[in-house]
Amino acid sequence: MNRPVISVVVPAYNEEMNVKPLYDRLLDVLTQISASFEIIFIDDGSRDDTVAEVLKIRALDERVKLVSFSRNFGHEMANTAGFRTASGDAVVIIDADLQDPPELILDMFEKYRAGFDVVYAKRKTRKKESFIKKSTSKMFYRVLKFMSDTEIPLDTGDFRLLSRRAVDEINRFSEKNRFFRGLTHWIGFKVTYVYFDRDERYAGETKYSYIKLMKLAIDAILSFSYKPLKLFSLFGFLSAGFGFLLMLYWMIKKIIFGNPTNGWTSTVTIMLFFFGILMMQVSVVGEYIARIYEEVRARPLYIVGRTEGVAPEIVSDKN
Ligand code: UDP
Ligand code: MG
């Protein structure tokens, strides 16, 4: 099979209204680069007509391909399947909702031609997203930066271009809890940025509830660092030291002044506080253990229900 010059991967979960407009804009951009391209829609178990919309386009343009999951496996898994499927020399990943302007692919491709392996699209501004979303997202990237041992680019979504060798490296990862935005940095290679203003969603609603975002944030932090553990052991160490000093103070006080019965408040507050810390500490350890359990259990990352234009064994989950 001939390798296309560029592959575009589109994870899509209930995006029926966005498929056609996205295709139109992509087509316009991609033909400027080369006629040899492929657009791979990864349907993440949509319940609406996303699949039908993709097939309608595929009937007219064979370069449009479909991988459809048996159920919703989440955005990161859709990305994973997309990278395993994409065969192009350069691979772009783009959201289905047109929040990432396809026209930017031209700039990204130019950078790729200039020898960069990873080209991030960095948001300058975001339109019409709630203040809470913007500020939590800003905060998230800062906390992540502080917490993680790998550098993770600030304020970038998933929209990015990867060279063939970068994609091949990404495809070697087998971990379950993955934070793709960090992995592309972890692999190294030459990295650069292009800048854009983030648009509003074209149609439909965001698929990320705050709960899902929380989970993403926790995954991101835990899969990239041991700092939560280290912070808690530091805290445990400090509080034990402080407790020891208090103990000395109280013992000496008792020897000199006898045994006054007051002191209930201090005892109870200290107990509450430190039991709280202890529980948090145990649950952080639990989070890591749960992750180890998931990895050891080694279930497949996702299940493919149907493919069109893609050989099933290419996308099948090998892990
Ligand atoms: N998405 C997906 N599976 C999910 C959730 C989202 O494939 O479980 C896709 C979605 O269709 C979109 C992209 O991931 O193409 C980004 O999602 P969304 O636009 O809802 O996120 P936001 O832009 O609000 O952060
Ligand atoms: Mg979006």
Can you give a write-up of this model?
- The protein has 319 residues and is an alpha/beta fold.
- It is 52% helix and 17% strand.
- It has 11 helices and 8 strands.
- The protein has helices at residues 16-33, 50-60, 75-85, 104-113, 131-147, 164-170, 180-186, 210-224, 227-257, 264-297, 312-315; strands at 6-12, 37-43, 64-69, 90-93, 118-126, 156-163, 191-198, 304-308.
- The protein has an 8-stranded mixed beta sheet with strand order 7-5-6-4-1-2-3-8, with helices on both faces.
- The longest helix has 34 residues, at 264-297.
- It binds uridine-5'-diphosphate and magnesium ion.
- Magnesium ion binds next to loops.
- It is a multi-pass membrane protein.
Overall 3D form: elongated
Which small-molecule ligands are present, each listed once? uridine-5'-diphosphate, magnesium ion
Radius of gyration: 25 Å
Written as H for each helix and E for each strand, in order along the chain, the element string is: EHEHEHEHEHEHHEHHHEH
Tell me the number of strands: 8
- Report the total helices: 11
- Mean pLDDT over all positions: 82
Low-confidence stretches: none
Q: What proportion strand?
A: 15-25%
SS content category: alpha/beta
Largest sheet: 8 strands, mixed
Helix content: 40-55%
Strand order of the largest sheet: 7-5-6-4-1-2-3-8
Distance between the termini: 25 Å
Transmembrane segments: 231-252, 264-290
Domain Glycosyltransferase 2-like: 7-170
Keywords: Glycosyltransferase, Membrane, Transferase, Transmembrane, Transmembrane helix
Main location: membrane
